[in-house]
Specification:
Blueprint (H helix, E strand, L loop, with lengths): L3 E2 L27 E2 L16 H6 L9 E2 L10 E4 L4 H14 L3 E5 L4 E5 L5 E8 L9 E9 L2 H16 L6 H26 L6 H16 L4 H14 L7 H13 L12 H4 L4 H16 L12 H30 L18 H4 L5 H16 L3 H9 L6 H17 L1 H9 L2 H15 L1 H14 L7
Parallel strand pairs: 3-7
Antiparallel strand pairs: 1-2, 4-8, 5-6, 6-7, 7-8
Helix pairs in contact: 2-3, 2-16, 5-6, 5-7, 5-9, 6-10, 7-9, 7-10, 9-10, 10-14, 13-14, 14-15, 14-17, 16-17
Length: about 450
């Protein structure tokens, strides 16, 4: 059945193409036209492909573009790309998503892609063919936010749409890798401000313990949103770029060891300040349970029907990722020298320098104690868990990236862990994950390269 409509209004030159609304002629005596609906029920005609370009882009090769459906409201986060082919456009977008470390699942038939960022923002990318009657022919690129933080979505959408147009910096990869250096510089400035505000540093540990207690209360609640807030709090508390170094060290010891043993702050008796260690141990057990088993406790399974189970599974997947991030941060803090987070000042007295403000056990001792305590608690090796997670890099690159970060830090600090990882086949798994990272995920590629270098080190006992 064909629906008669009025002919569309002629657009003035320079007008933006909007396929959502077709103009209706005001003259009722004008001849009627018909909408051909067959194009929406059959496959679109194929577009010739550039074989050379296709070889460079094996991830996404859209062979046909659908026209924008009638009365379809395009998102504001869309761009009209002129004088381009679908393959050339796909090449630019795939490289952009790789350098942004965005996990993408491509659909060549529909010319769409489902995107997931490390900030848990879900997006949908679509390529549309402009109508034949359009004033400016080309390809419409549309980006929709399906779930997640709107501010993070807008940051990503601007970069992705700029890349689609071709406004892309060839050195962006260097900027992305160099962001870690910028973070270190930023953290030094934060520490300088904290030091100027509080020369003694004796209040920071008190604030840290209060924050840890709050995170503990949220983490052990029954509500999923409260647990998520608790884990996000621990992510912040274990990141020296967003909090003080003393706070990060205290929280990292809680996450890894479930206590504050081995930490000395001049003039502060931590045992007197912290009367009960049981909340700290509960935090450690909750993190390990989420990392190794994707649950908190033994009875953390919903039984209220299939719909509730699916919701809980989605939340537990998110909590598992956050727990991996907390563990990766904690291991990184223990492994990194405190001077990394402080600006050097030659005029500063020795008793006021970073190592004098807070003394801890060596990273090797803390890591070995963590590995031993983990196996005693869960009866499972954390190295086996991390390697298994890394083996799923193709389907879960964000989790694999965090697992590679944890694995590299552990193997660097412990000769025994490095030897055991080789026995578990870590080299083969890391090589496979590295291939995935080189094709689709820059951060995964970077972390896997670090793990490969660590695994080639010679043990002291060899």
């Amino acid at each position: 059945m064909c629906i008669p409509v009025r002919p569309e209004i002629e657009r003035p030159e320079g007008a933006t193409v909007n396929a959502a609304v077709e103009g209706v002629h005001k003259n009722s005596a004008a001849p009627l036209q018909q909408i051909d609906k067959r194009s929406y029920f059959h496959d679109a005609s194929s577009t010739p492909l550039d074989s050379l370009s296709l070889e460079k882009n094996t991830s996404w090769a859209p062979t046909a573009l659908r026209p924008v459906p009638a009365f379809y409201p395009l998102e504001k986060s869309s761009r009209l790309i002129e004088d381009t082919t679908p393959v050339a456009l796909a090449i630019r977008l795939v490289e952009c998503l790789r350098q942004l470390s965005v996990h993408a699942v491509y659909d060549n038939a529909a010319a769409t892609a489902s995107l997931l960022t490390q900030e848990h923002v879900e997006m949908h990318l679509s390529l549309w063919n402009t109508p034949v009657t359009a004033h400016t022919p080309g390809v419409l690129v549309e980006l929709q936010r399906r779930k997640g933080d709107s501010m993070a979505f807008h940051r990503y959408s601007r970069v992705i749409l700029d890349a689609a147009v071709g406004d892309w910096d060839d050195n962006y990869q260097q900027h992305a890798v160099g962001s870690q250096v910028d973070s270190v510089v930023y953290s030094k400035k934060v520490q300088r401000l904290l030091t100027l505000h509080n020369k003694s540093g004796q209040d920071e540990h008190e604030n840290a313990l209060v924050a840890i207690e709050i995170a503990h209360g949220l983490l052990l609640k029954d509500r999923m949103d409260a647990r998520q807030l608790g884990l996000e709090s621990l992510c912040l508390l274990t990141d020296p770029r967003k909090t003080g170094y003393v706070t990060a060290v205290l929280t990292s010891h809680v996450v890894l060891l479930g206590s504050l043993q081995g930490i000395e702050i001049p003039g502060v008796d931590l045992e007197a300040v912290l009367v009960d260690d049981s909340p700290l141990e509960e935090i450690r057990q909750a993190i390990l349970s989420l990392v190794q088993f994707s649950r908190i406790g033994e009875d953390d399974e919903a039984d209220d029907g299939q719909e509730q189970t699916m919701t809980d599974t989605e939340h537990l997947t998110l909590l598992h990722n956050l727990a991996l991030a907390v563990l990766a941060n904690a291991l990184q803090v223990i492994e990194t020298s405190p001077e990394t987070y402080y600006e050097e000042d030659d005029e500063e007295p020795e008793d006021a320098k970073p190592r004098a403000r807070l003394r801890t056990a060596s990273s090797s001792d803390v890591t070995n104690e963590f590995l031993k305590a983990t196996e005693e608690t869960s009866k499972h090796e954390i190295l086996s868990t991390l390697i298994r997670e890394l083996s799923q890099a193709g389907s879960k690159p964000h989790d694999a990236c965090l697992s590679a970060k944890c694995l590299g830090t552990i193997c660097k600090a412990s000769d025994e862990a490095r030897k055991r990882a080789k026995e578990l086949g870590a080299k083969t798994v890391v090589a496979t994950a590295l291939d995935v990272g080189q094709q689709t995920h820059l951060k995964l590629e970077t972390e896997c390269e670090k793990v490969q270098k660590v695994l080639t080190l010679t043990n002291m006992d060899d």
